[in-house]
Backbone:
C-alpha cells in the first residue's frame, strides 16, 4: 500500500530546507504511520492528537527531534522483532488447552495480569519468553506485572528486553526461568530508584 502526504509550509518555514530535510521528514512520516497503526485503537485518538500538535505546533521539528523519533521507532521495532510473539490461538494450540474455547483461556490470563500482550493489526501478541515449557504463564510474570503496574505493554516489552546493570548486563527476559527472584528484585529496584529520583 502506498500513502502520499502533502505538507503545506509558508515561505518562512520552507526557507533553508534542504533535500536531506525533506528526506528526513519522509522517513519520519513513514515511522509515524507504522507506529500509529500499531497503537491500540483506544489510544490511537490520543496519539493522533499529539501528532497533529507536533506537526502543526509553533515549534518546528529540528533534525535532532526527527532523529530521536526515528531512534524510538527503531527501538520499538527491534523489541518486536527481538523475540517470538504468539497469538492466543497459537498458545492455545501449543499448550493443548482443549476444544472448549481455548482462546478465551489465554485472554483470561491477560485479564488476570498473568501475561501481557502487544496489540497489532487487531490481534494480541504474547511474548513466548513469558511462558513455561508447558506454554502457560510463568508465575514470576504476574509478580513482575504487579510491580510494573503503571507500564503500558510497549514499556513492559522494552523493560523485559533491555539489558540491566542490576542483572549484570543481562535482559530480564533471559533470566525468567533460571533466576525469577532476581528478575522480580530488578523490577522492584527500578521502581525504588525511580521513586527516589522522581
Residues:
Amino acid at each position: 500500500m502506498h500513502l502520499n502526504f502533502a505538507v503545506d509550509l509558508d515561505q518562512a518555514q520552507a526557507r533553508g530546507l534542504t533535500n536531506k530535510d525533506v528526506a528526513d521528514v519522509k522517513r519520519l512520516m513513514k515511522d509515524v504511520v507504522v507506529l500509529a497503526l500499531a497503537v491500540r485503537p483506544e489510544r490511537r485518538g490520543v496519539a493522533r492528537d499529539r501528532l497533529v500538535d507536533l506537526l502543526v505546533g509553533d515549534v518546528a521539528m529540528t533534525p535532532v527531534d526527527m532523529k530521536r523519533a526515528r531512534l524510538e521507532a527503531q527501538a520499538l521495532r527491534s523489541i518486536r522483532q527481538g523475540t517470538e510473539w504468539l497469538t492466543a490461538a497459537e498458545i492455545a494450540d501449543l499448550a493443548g488447552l482443549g476444544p472448549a474455547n481455548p482462546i478465551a483461556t489465554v485472554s483470561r490470563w491477560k485479564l488476570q495480569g498473568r501475561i501481557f500482550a502487544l496489540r497489532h493489526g487487531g490481534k494480541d501478541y504474547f511474548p513466548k519468553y513469558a511462558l513455561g515449557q508447558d506454554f502457560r504463564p510463568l508465575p514470576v510474570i504476574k509478580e513482575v506485572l504487579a510491580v510494573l503496574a503503571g507500564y503500558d505493554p510497549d514499556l513492559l516489552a522494552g523493560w523485559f528486553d533491555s539489558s540491566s546493570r542490576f542483572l549484570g548486563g543481562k535482559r530480564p527476559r533471559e533470566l525468567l526461568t533460571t533466576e525469577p527472584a532476581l528478575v522480580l528484585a530488578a523490577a522492584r529496584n527500578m521502581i525504588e530508584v525511580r521513586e527516589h529520583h522522581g
About this structure: The radius of gyration is 20 Å. The CA atoms of residues 84 and 128 lie 6 Å apart. The chain has a mean pLDDT of 79.
